[in-house]
Design goal:
- 72% of the residues lie in helices and 2% in strands.
- With 250 residues, it is an all-alpha fold.
- A two-stranded antiparallel sheet has the order 1-2.
Length: 250
């Protein structure tokens, strides 16, 4: 299992990181982390797009779920059964959003291990034949942040706070717009509370990790915000085109 993780996650990430460091990042470790993060988000884009579409379908399904639960008030077993039937009927997978988090966990672990390494000849022994080992790898970013050190040390705290703020805006963007007179369900209330809880959780998690991971987290959140906006516009345009087709058919 460890060998599989090394071959599929750790070694490829290390090689891509060093490749970026030697080329488009101009031997700037922080830029290399940013380019690596963007590269990962591009690979994960199809999965992320599918996840956003599922969330959109779940939001549209909420009125039906509330109606079904009201019809079986007091019978939690029946409420759960009816809710799962609605999910199945509309081909909605409620836990699909967890998948993209699970996919990113090995990446975060690998980045932590890379940040903790001393970048010795033993570390660079994992490089592919076409990737040149840097003579002296500088882990500073903008001359202010040492990405090998903890996220709460010195100027590294800046990246930590920015990562938490980006997480806040990312979570806020994923919420459905509130309509006047709309009754907020319990699930929606929890979702809106999580907008404020998630940034605090981000700070707690990243505080004990190298600033490398915090920079990855910050860049991931910023790229996710852009991708979410693009997908939301695409979904809105598709719904508009679908509405026009229905009007013509009527």
């Amino acid at each position: 299992m460890i060998e599989l993780y090394n071959n599929l996650v750790h070694e490829p990430l290390l090689n891509v990181l060093i490749l970026f460091y030697n080329t488009i990042a101009f031997q700037n470790f922080g830029l290399a982390i940013i380019f690596l993060t963007i590269f990962i988000r591009i690979i994960l884009y199809p999965l992320f797009q599918k996840n956003v579409r599922h969330q959109n379908e779940m939001q549209k399904l909420q009125p039906k779920i509330r109606k079904a639960q009201e019809a079986h008030k007091g019978n939690r077993e029946k409420q759960a059964q009816v809710t799962m039937e609605l999910y199945k009927e509309h081909n909605v997978k409620p836990f699909s959003g967890i998948l993209i988090l699970l996919v990113q966990m090995p990446v975060i672990i690998a980045l932590f291990q890379i940040a903790q390494s001393s970048f010795t000849p033993e570390t660079f022994a994992e490089l592919y034949s076409f990737v040149k080992a840097p003579i002296d790898l500088n882990t500073s970013f903008l001359g202010l942040i040492n990405l090998k050190e903890s996220s709460i040390v010195g100027n590294n705290f800046i990246v930590l706070i920015l990562a938490a703020l980006a997480q806040y805006f990312q979570a806020k963007l994923s919420l459905p717009p509130q309509k006047p007179g709309h009754e907020v369900s319990r699930a929606e209330k929890i979702g809106r509370q999580m907008v404020f809880i998630t940034p605090g959780f981000t700070i707690v998690v990243l505080a004990g990790l190298p600033a490398t991971v915090a920079l990855y987290w910050l860049t991931t959140s910023l790229v996710t915000i852009i991708q979410q906006k693009v997908i939301n516009k695409k979904i809105k345009r598709e719904h508009g085109e679908l509405g026009n087709i229905r009007e013509k058919n009527n």
